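Fold this sequence, please.
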Amino acid sequence: RVFKIRTRFLLFFCLNISVLFFFFYRLNALEESRVYQEHELIADRVFDELEREFASFLQKETARDYGEYAQLVQEEPEASFIVSYFQRAEGRIVSNNPTEDAPYIARVDLEEIQRLEQPVMQQKAPQDVYSAQKMLNRSRNSKIRLQTTPASVSPLEGFIERDRLVLFREVRLSDETIKQGLILDRKAFQEEFSRRVLRDLTPEEGRYRDPVGSKSLRNGAPSGWLNLDWEGGQRGDSEFHFRYIFSAPLSALHVEVQLKRLSGMQQTKHLLWFLGVISSLLVGLGLFGLYRMQRLTEDAAQQRSDFVGAVSHELRTPITSVRLYSEMLGEGLVPEEKKTEYYQTILSEAIRLGALVEDVLSFSRLDRGHRLDAEASGLFQQVVITLQKRFRTPLSEAGFVLVEDYDPKTLEERVPVEVWIQILSNLIDNARKFSFGVSYKEIRIDSGFDPSYLVVKVSDRGPGIPTEQIEEVKKPFVRGESEITRKTKGTGIGLALVEGLVSEMGGTLTLSNRDGGGLQVEIRVPKSS
């Protein structure tokens, strides 16, 4: 039964722990998903900032009048990452660095340009002679401008050639097509725009600009928590990696945002696992408590079952004897000379039966917390006389030597007679039962004063009690034998009852093993006067 209880609770415990860990595993997975999404949100904002900076730069370059390039190719570029401007018209190439730029400009001719067709601007018809003359004069004075008014300008296109990023467009005039653009140092271009985007996200000033309202950034970020990898393959110690390809004309560029786990999110993860461990411990303790309660309940039920079996066993013998002897006497089967012996046996069995019932009733009252009558009702000498009448002959017939050494003054001590008879009867009966198999059967009773206590000792020469079990045997129903296989009689409540009765008198019960074998039970109760 105990094995089944342990197995059942072990399985129940394992099941609950498994469910709990699965719950926290899923909770941790959800938290990891949330953390990933928050880091992804930061990366998306970085990508948006880069796109915005690129769009601003491209808008500026797209808005340049095509005529500005004639001047730009002769000046030093204003941005450090711009290598040169170039223009190719009617087979003639003009740039800031013609020799170095030639391979890149040559490739421009090979790129397919998605032209954005725009309608050619139409001149309005003059309304009168004055208006016509004015238009002719303007045409004569601005011949070049009329020739250079573009019919269409294509959007900027781009490609990467070695370490250069080339942006170009096609300008269609009425009588020719011009290709113009600019050549960028790709790495310098990337570093410049990275610096613009990340300048408020670096820990140089000891604070961070939160681009996405992230709680984690407001809690602080570790040094080097964000890195932009334009080349690829530089993983480092970052935990989160997000890749992005930019829109045209910079679609040849791609970047990877590398993020370390932010401190606030790391603390949340640790908190979740801490709560998981604490919850597991609490569940484990709760299940262990339930197991202990169930075990105690089972033990109590088993003890009471053993007690019922023991009482039944103890009651069966005297009842059987009384019934058998009574039937024999009633049917006249007993010779006249044996009748006295039979009557004596019936009387002793009846006394034994009465003592057993009284023990059970007293123990029941003590177990329910009811106090017993422990007031002095007679002299200790009355207790001694009753015990001699009850035990001297049975002990002698069983081969026991009863040694009595009473201090004469103790015989005059006033005590609760019935309580003392019950106590000493149990102790003598125990000594007789557990000394049955020894070679020298001795039961000794001593009494004396020390100095304000009445001290009574009951000793035997039985096997004694193992030291580690001396306190255990005082508990109810605790026996060293199974109720089915035990060789000694008894209900298992004797010493528990004795200790309860001694406590009712304000005394103490002490068990100790004797030198040479045997057990000594010492009772100390306050003197009556």
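Confidence is low (pLDDT under 50) at residues 113-123, 132-148, 203-221, 481-486. The first helix runs from residue 2 to 62.
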